[in-house]
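At this stage, I put together one protein's amino acid sequence and its backbone structure tokens, which the following lines show:
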Amino acid sequence: MKTIYKDVIEANLECIIDCRICFSEMAGKESFNDCPKCCIQCADACEMLIKAMTSDSAFVKQYALLCAEICEYCADHCGEHEHEHCKTCAETCRKCAEACRKIAA
């Protein structure tokens, strides 16, 4: 595994955790957008990117780009809510998207 992935893996792990917390906290609450469904999709994308990076996949850049797009989508939706867990999730998703875009370039 390339050492340049270390920061991206850490950002992905943090994103997975915050997305799962947001999803769990939103259980049973009404949502006017794709939160919390986007949280599950985002966590899945982050996990897939981690798998690609740790196996030195030839498709890391493509996975990273897709992960960044999904993270931004999730950040947009969670960021529209006033719940603290949603705001945390949105912030973490934005940081993860930024890290993913760095290796996708």
